What does this fold into?
Amino acid sequence: MQRAGLLLCATLLIGCGDDSSSEWTVGPATGDGGQDAPSADAAEEESPEASAADASSDAPPQEDAPTEDAPTEDAPDAAGELQGFIGSPCSSAADCKYAEAVCVTNGAVNGLCSLACTTSCPDQDGHPVTSCVEPSQVPEATSLPEGLCVSRCNFGPYPATGCREGYGCVKAARPGDPTTVRWVCLPNKSSDLPACYTELAARGVAFEPTVMKDESPNTHPNLTCHVIDPLYVESPVHGVRLESGGKETKRVLGSCRMVNALVSTADDLKPLDVIAIQHMGTYNCRVIAGTDKLSEHASGDAIDFGGFELAGGAVYTVVDDWIHDDDTPSTAGGKFLYEAAHRWYDQHIWNIILTPEYNSAHDNHFHVDMTDGSHFLGFTSGHYLGPNVYGD
Ligand SMILES: [Zn+2]
It folds into this structure.
């Protein structure tokens, strides 16, 4: 039921995150899928799961959304800063184009469009997701004693630091809720980002760093799913779209190191005219079926690839185009898939690559992950290139 609810959230574009406000949300569902992502109770081994964290959000804005402002109001200014919404610069509240706006000017660099809040804040398409933070985080905002809305860090509009100039990307808790923490942009602070985030940003990748609470699989309450440096990467990645279920997925949740490998995969495929990767699931707090061992999906370190779309219109899917028991596939799709898996292995892009040759659970996708210390390409037809780490 949880999963169905989340899919509904994605479909309706209502923010179902813990600090979203549905009436205001006109853009992407807020990115709190990390805590709300579904757990697969009875997944086959490494079978792909469409994660709610991959929620697509490309439906049109809702009719009742605040739309009185012309789109040009949101266009970046000369400094490349987004205008008119929470987190934007302002000289007075009139610059902040939403109800009950507050412009914090007392010490906030170039003004800060904000809003009073206690737990949640509105979001708007084209702007970073927002968060409600403790007033102590912005002492200049003396008129907002309960809490204030700020924008989360996002390396799409702000590729250098994730924030406007003069603002730092730091972790901040929701008022009265120290366990709900987000990476947000605050004035007069220095960024305090893990190295993996800054390295990913240096590669020119649009993403929102996030914070996830640990959770446990429903079936294994003794196990803990923990994601190191979680983030939402935005499609396209280096020009390659991310798709799931025939639609673009605007944001995909995963660990930073997994996303780094995903970017390298996009870089590998782009020269071959690949325009889209069809994926079938990333983060999912579950065990490998039939075992008591956490899947690499449970740490956000894995992704499943179902197929690849080329600029000329060809679509190569693992289920249809993989040629079994053949080291020299002669079809275009078979050759493409075979060579892709081997390149990623040879280039150490992924530490584990499971193909249809590994077992029947992978007949329709490549499972690729970042298992520490592994260098494994899963073939069983005489092509083992490493230990069978899953003890299949
Ligand atoms: Zn998988």
